[in-house]
Amino acid sequence: MGTPSLSPWAVLALALMLVGLGAPCVVSGQPNFIVILADDVGWGDLGANWAETKETPHLDQLAAEGTRFVDFHSAASTCSPSRASLLTGRLGVRNGVTHNFAIASLGGLPLNETTLAEVLREAGYSTGAIGKWHLGHHGRHHPNSRGFDYYFGIPYSHDMGCTDTPGYNLPPCPPCPRHGTAAREARKDCYTEVALPLFENVTIVQQPVELGSLATRYAEEAARFIQRASDSGRPYFLYLALAHMHVPLTPPLPPAPGRGIYGASLSEMDALVGRIKEVADSHGKGNTLLWFAGDNGPWAQKCELAGRLGPLVGAWQRQRGGSSAKQTTWEGGHRVPALVYWPGRVPAGRTSHALLSVLDIFPTLVALAGAALPPNRRFDGLDVSPVLFGWSDVGHKVLLHPNSGAAGKVGEIEALRLAQYKVFYTTGGAMACDGSTGPAERHQPPLIFNLDRDLQEQEPLDVASGEYQAVLPAVSRAYAQALRDIAADNVSVADYSQDPAAIPCCNVQHVGCRCRGAHGPTLGPHVEKRTPRLCL
């Protein structure tokens, strides 16, 4: 578990940055940080990870100029918990976010949890969030109340509201209604009543969102934020939470032959990341750390609209039905692509096998900024700056994988990693492309896989084998210690209650909450109760 102190490694790293010792790029003061989080991206969606993928030349170049992490994991296998853990350095069982928030959610990431943006802003940073939030949008849960000076984006996933030109989905969803109840068409798993909103700070600037131009708008707003921060002379922290991949946005051009809709969307995401790198480099190459990662594995039930697992197929589960990707604790659910780029600081062309997590982003960036972790709580993330700088390739000894919807109580820890061993006390499969779900199964003694020789998670160790008997005591001790540590911590509880008044709506008089002008009303971030905004 992490500690609220500045590590000796971070002190040395910061000292080296401040004097520019032995590096081709001199860094003056605190570095800038860009964290790019892709949505539902598969480990195999990165060409540098999986040779069959051809749509990511910019990301592959980023890998060639930085360090690629091949054993990097999300903190949960679904959206809100993973994002909450990135911004707090704590698992959902500590920070209270164990499953996804809804469009009518009154709550969000608990207010007593301190975000990375709040720590960095206190340390002198300009802070911006662009893209998907999904940590509560009502009242004080809005990004502007959680440490971000600037916000531009969608408060949840881009399929959680109707649009005039719907993106791809399976099954397809209809466009927003225009002329009252006669035009409405209810479909399972589709949001047909309220249009998807786009916020700039606390103002809805478009409802419904034009999905076809969203990637361009995100790139433009990111560039403007970086320019403003650079002009101010302050270091900046930009959290760019992409709409890609989830389900594909409408591609700007017809997909090329053999590439398909998903491939076209992947190319669009890749180009967006390339543009952000270009902008960051233009404002002082060597001053900015860029960290790219995924929030969880691909959404397998979307079939050809879902990402690529590469070798992480979860074969044991797939033989029993269901998906082994998003919402599961199989490797395909939480092992995600990850790259770090920082010219002159992070070694180029390096591949790291250290066991790392999105949880590590918080303590690492806090340390590199010369700040301190918030007191009176425990952290699951580590300051992994020695790994980033190539001084070490040692990450977590133990990494916990919470239940994320496929089996077991959400948020509880019933799978973990100890060195090369993957341990399951509960297994289950999420909905697969064929509609099947794998049954939840309890395992006592636990299933144990050796990932060094079985990355596909096909054959658990024989409980009678010497290897199983040798590793089981260490697994049991690590699991028991982790549960004791959590029980002794200051933990938070999220409010998952819902009220139609919490649904963002810029025009309650118009069907679908449609905005006719460029700007809708300002929604004050500190107002806890508002006029009902669900347009029926």
TrEMBL record:
Its main location: other. Its cofactor is Ca(2+). Residues 1-29 form the signal peptide. The keyword Glycoprotein applies. It is found in: Lysosome. Keywords: Calcium, Disulfide bond, Glycoprotein, Hydrolase, Lysosome, Metal-binding, Signal. GO terms for cellular component: lysosome. This is Arylsulfatase G. The gene is Arsg.
